[in-house]
Predict the 3D structure of the following.
Amino acid sequence: MAGQILPHDVHGTGPARVIVLHNWFADRSSFDAFRAHADPEAHTYAFLDCRGYGDAIDAEGAYTMEEVAEDALAVADHLGWDEFSVLGHSMGGKAAQWMLLRAPGRIRSLIGVAPVPAAGFPFDEQSWELFSKAAEEPGNRRVIIDHTTGGRHDDAWLDAMVERSLARSSQTAFRAYLDSWSGTDFHEQIKGNPTPVLLVAGAHDPALGAATMEATWLQWYPNARLEVFDEAGHHAPEETPAELATVVERFLAN
């Protein structure tokens, strides 16, 4: 599978290089608030759009986590980055693990923000109905975002999240990525991987919170550690961007 150089922004000029992969609901703009708190002298971040999202909304593809990984590696090659860390939010965290398998010598460390485990995410029948119809039903997207952030945000915040999701993702890609991030299981291939891993979970995330991290990632990665944000749900880059930037850059400095 050959990767493509997809639209991306480079922020900073520092020596610590980081590829950043967004979540299922949004494009790279979901990290705008995080970027405002990042240290551009210590780090260089490359924020990517996956195929079917943002400025790559018309890019055709298989819309799988493996493809996201290959595209991210193509961007790293384009930037001349031989070694770097990867930060992945939600489905981006699963794609980051494919990058680790594909190019183990190049990944210095991995940061997962409410990251989907390598084993995928099991759904009961009712939840699958909700998620699988979210590509075409804005109301489903709103329910999911509200539930996974603990029902703590007002209508204006939820409306803005849904509106951006609809505007910045194609229905085809949105629906196809669901099958890949939820269903593909490759956790046996990453068990025991010694790469340093930082996990960030929101205390108000009932799906990919601390309990899920403890049952999956922390069982498989011997050098993983977990940070729990008291004021975040599933969307820490938007809910607690300053805290996320502080924790991420402290980890990268080690």
Remarks:
- The CA atoms of residues 29 and 54 lie 8 Å apart.
- The first helix runs from residue 32 to 37.
- The beta strands are 8-11, 16-21, 43-48, 84-89, 107-113, 197-202, 224-229.
- The radius of gyration is 16 Å.
